[in-house]
Design goal:
5-stranded antiparallel β-sheet, 174 residues, 17% helix, Alpha-Beta Plaits, single chain, alpha+beta, 4-stranded antiparallel β-sheet, SH3 type barrels, 2 domains, 40% strand
């Protein structure tokens, strides 16, 4: 049996959540749960400044696109392609191209088999042991299990600046 991969479906702008709901409903009705595993509308938290007040809102990372983890075959292609609001798959012609592992990691979507247990939490002091911020010390402000990152404040140009660092690049200090 083929392995499930992530594909990108192009939708009408503003229809991303409707497309996700429609695909989820069709998967349930046609019992395709073992072939179309997950449908995502990638979101990111953004701080907006309106009328002098800061407000945290979730915005779509890719307006007009939906990510689908599925096993590509004639049935699944037909279900997604003929969902109301979907204009097609991303790829040359009518041939969908799956996203690579590197592309998926950059989106913060990792292999579910790679669950990592961490021994740190919000408020802990950590030392950065790899990457751009190596040898920096900071206090964890937040932990994002799904992206496998922590957000710490570092001093940059005399100011506290939040940076996101991979779990593998931090070590708890005693």
């Amino acid at each position: 049996m083929a392995e499930a991969q992530w594909y990108v479906a192009h939708t009408y702008s503003g229809y991303e959540n409707k497309v996700k709901a429609n695909i989820d409903k069709t998967v349930e009705n046609r019992h395709l749960e073992d072939q179309i595993l997950e449908v995502r509308v990638p979101m990111q938290d953004v701080v907006e400044l309106k009328n002098g007040t800061k407000k945290s809102v979730s915005k779509k990372m890719f307006p007009g696109y939906v990510l689908i983890n599925m096993i590509m075959n004639d049935d699944t292609w037909y279900v997604v392609r003929n969902t109301r609001g979907v204009t097609g798959f991303v790829g040359p012609g009518s041939k969908p191209v799956p996203l690579t592992d590197v592309e998926m990691r950059s989106l913060g979507i990792r292999d579910n088999n790679a669950d990592i247990e961490v021994d740190f939490a919000e408020g802990d002091t950590v030392s950065v042991i790899g990457g751009v911020w190596k040898d920096t010390v900071g206090v964890i402000q937040s932990v994002n299990i799904s992206k496998q990152t922590v957000k710490i404040n570092v001093e940059l140009f005399g100011r506290e600046t939040p940076v996101e660092i991979d779990f593998m690049d931090v070590e708890k200090m005693n």
